[in-house]
């Protein structure tokens, strides 16, 4: 068994809070949290602020988010008294209509890669039940694409687990979740739908390129 496999196995029985606390102990101040302002991000943000509020948190500001996404961004900053760093890349006009993969690369993939350079680990809101591509998501694993550890504390959580935590802790969450949007990305490429079926509807595209080798 490799060191990566051993660590992955060791963390599997831990709760989300325990996984995050372990990540803070191992990697802070070189730990970063990526937030999309979706429901999973609300949960992780709340947990991180309770464990170590000085952890760096960033979001990919593509410039074409829903107005409600920016409202949620402000609500989270106001609630916890912190600043969430917005990362921006090139923004070619309406590129999503002709080349959505290139659009994601410029607005998301490149800014993410640049921000993660030099970090020790990053935290995401991936859950196994979100899609077939994410079914094998471990709670912590080596991210070969970016060359650092990737922490997924909610990997084994269900949709019900997420909402139970949000409601129990009275956390701000994205209002579009109440309007049939289960997965929320950029406004031009997102429509209401179960799971991730509302993302890039009518195309073969399933992921924006942030995750995976």
UniProtKB/TrEMBL annotation:
Give the residues the record marks as binding [4Fe-4S] cluster. Answer: 103-104, 186, 189
Q: Which UniProt keywords apply?
A: Cytoplasm, Iron, Iron-sulfur, Metal-binding, Oxidoreductase
Indicate the residues that form the catalytic site: 208
Q: How is the cofactor bound?
A: Binds 1 [4Fe-4S] cluster per subunit.
Please give one Gene Ontology molecular function term for this protein: phosphoadenylyl-sulfate reductase (thioredoxin) activity
Q: Which GO terms describe its biological process?
A: hydrogen sulfide biosynthetic process; sulfate assimilation, phosphoadenylyl sulfate reduction by phosphoadenylyl-sulfate reductase (thioredoxin)
Task: Give the required cofactors.
Answer: [4Fe-4S] cluster
Q: In which pathway does it act?
A: Sulfur metabolism; hydrogen sulfide biosynthesis; sulfite from sulfate
The UniProt entry, under InterPro entries, shows: PAPS/APS_Rdtase, PAPS_reduct_dom, Rossmann-like_a/b/a_fold
Q: What is its EC number?
A: 1.8.4.10
Q: Is Cell division among the key words of this record? A: no
- So what does this thing catalyse? [thioredoxin]-disulfide + sulfite + AMP + 2 H(+) = adenosine 5'-phosphosulfate + [thioredoxin]-dithiol
Q: Indicate the enzyme's highest-level EC class.
A: oxidoreductase
Provide the family line.
Belongs to the PAPS reductase family. CysH subfamily.
Its job: Catalyzes the formation of sulfite from adenosine 5'-phosphosulfate (APS) using thioredoxin as an electron donor.
Q: What is this protein called?
A: Adenosine 5'-phosphosulfate reductase
Whose protein is this, by species?
A: Capillimicrobium parvum
